[in-house]
Amino acid sequence: MFANKSQTIDISNLCKSYGSVNALDDVSLNISAGEFLTLLGPSGSGKTTLLMALAGFVRPDGGSIRFGDREMITTPPHKRGLGMVFQSYALFPFMTVAENVAYPLKIRGVSKSDQKIRAERALETVELGGYGNRRINQLSGGQKQRVALARAMVFEPQIILMDEPLSALDKKLREHMQIELKALHQKLDATIVYVTHDQREALTMSDRIAVVNHGRIEQVETPERLYRQPHSFFVADFIGESISLPVTVAKGTAQLGERVLKSDLPIALGSGGHRLVVRPELLEVTPGDVPETANDLSGYVHDIIYQGDSVLVIVQHDSVGQINVRVPANRAGQIGLPSKGERIGLALHPEDTIIVPEHIS
Amino acid sequence: MSIHESNGSPQSLKNASKIKFEERRESLTFLGLSLPAILAIFIVVFLPIIWLSSLSFYNAAGELSMENYARIYESALYRRTFVVTFQISIAVTLICVLLGYPLCYWLTKLPDRTASILMIFVLVPFWTSILVRTYAWLVLLQRNGIINSSLMSLGIIDEPLQLAHNLTGSIIGMVHVMLPFLVLPLYATMRSIDTDLVRAAVGLGSSPREAFWRVFFPMSRPGLFAGIVLVFILSLGFYVTPALMGGGRVQMLAQRIESTITIYSNWGAASALGVVLLLLALVMIWLMNRVFGLDKLFMR
């Protein structure tokens, strides 16, 4: 592949409103060349609107979209040179697999013989070599998805947009395709913008994730940092499993009830008060007393739920209420969990103590 | 354990005969439910067709002969009637397509609510008697009708246009009656086309025009075909509107059949015309199927 073929995407001050609803509220985002960036958010958050604005199907009220150094804001969709994958696959039912994949080449005036060679090569990339003569209705959901991918990349676009491409697949296939898609991205020299509402999918595949909520980008980060250091309650709550407890913050320290919380993580500014976010798997079950260096969240075992790979312990804390703890099944066997009604020692270490504002400022 | 024991030996299949009986009873119930409809179709459609076609093989003297068909073939008047019938039907179908296709396309682009309100305007005339609509057109189109008088008062024309009681009038009236038959199946098909398909085509580099012709139009063809067949076949046998709007100057097949019976009371000749019309209609459907390649389109 050629160096620097993929392109940067620079979005600045993008606005779009439908009546009184701000679908895009002054969105700015810079995506590097060759990056796999995921727009993650609940339905109605504006993530699809943002993708459709990139594609040119939604006309923003204002702002700028640049691919490389070219301003695209008024360029019609068919001149943006994008590869696109849709949630519904959007394969043309009256064409064969090969005709579908060759479609972008045909439009670009590539010769018939070249069309054939390149379509077959693209099909091989998605492991569908030899499927060219099949009809679309003869394919399974996963195969259709692969054909849609092959069609989006056959003309080697510098940018590929994907709108929830895996959401129609069953769980097992979806997880398999996530890994494949990630591997495919490393082979292709293209910037990928991917939309999903599935946080696990976003964590699995992305170089960076932009969390979208109410038409705004709450946080853009690598999966690990997004998980470990969310900037707002929305991000913390949307990504991963967690329970949250209201805390008071004064002079840079947070208090849970009477106790001062020890935290190594910065406390982001915001409005609407702060919350302590406790992820069930980040709590440590301690056999004896909780060490001085950690925050003590000990309580009494309310229930123990066996979930195969792990055990979920529901703990009734003395003052703040219910806290969930997840212990890997094999470790639960080693340490020997207390039974129902007994006291359980829970340590929340300072590096795992996440304190976030209710709303970002 | 019990699975192993019962495997392979048919007599140990529990309740097998009961299940079989239940299955048969169910299919008999379905047959019983559809029997009235099957009987009705047989009595109302097939018996008259059989009776009519047998009539066509008897001449006026009541002897078995091919005389009626020979006359259709030889008579210039009959041949002229067939040609006119086809010409008018083709013209009406074409005009319906030219008016109806853009209308449906526009309707699919509108928000659902607006589109359904506008569909009512297409459907309301559909629910009105053909006779009423035809007379309404006569009022509008006649020599001193609203259209001629307003065009003249605006100074666009000096002489009233001959819009009714001729071919033009017949076609205008027929198009108005036939348009819903094209619009309904076509609109239903267009509505069901996934908008993502056109978006995908455009997103992958087609201009909107190219996307329309390469993707949307092929996808709309089954509906268009259904509409064309309906309009064309119905036009072939249309009686009321051409009879009234044509003012006796336009003779289509249905009128010819009617006059054969009422004036000459020649049932054999009229039946022969009817049989030829039916056969021609079937041939047309077959031909159109070949042209549009329907089998290919429906293979999804």
Briefly, what is this?
The complex is a heterodimer of chains A (361) and B (300). Chain A has 9 helices and 21 strands.
Describe this structure in words.
The complex is a heterodimer of chains A (361) and B (300). The two termini of chain A are 43 Å apart. In chain A, the strands form four sheets. Chain A has a six-stranded mixed sheet with strand order 6-7-8-3-9-10, sandwiched between helices. In chain A, strands 15, 16, 17, 18, 19 and 20 form a six-stranded antiparallel sheet that branches. Chain A has a five-stranded antiparallel sheet with strand order 13-12-11-14-21. Chain A is built from nine helices and 21 strands. In chain A, helix 2 crosses helix 3, helix 2 packs parallel to helix 4 (141-153) and helix 3 (112-125) crosses helix 4. Chain A has 361 residues and is α+β, with helices and mostly antiparallel strands. Chain B has 300 residues and is mainly alpha-helical. Chain B has two domains: 2-55; 71-298, MetI-like fold (Orthogonal Bundle). In chain B, 78% of the residues lie in helices and 0% in strands. Chain B has helices at residues 2-6, 16-55, 67-74, 76-109, 112-127, 130-141, 146-153, 167-191, 195-203, 208-236, 240-245, 253-262, 267-292, 294-298. In chain B, helix 3 crosses helix 13 (267-292) and helix 10 (208-236) runs antiparallel to helix 13 (267-292). Classes of the chains: A alpha+beta (361), B mainly alpha (300). The interface between A and B is medium-sized, with 28 and 23 residues.
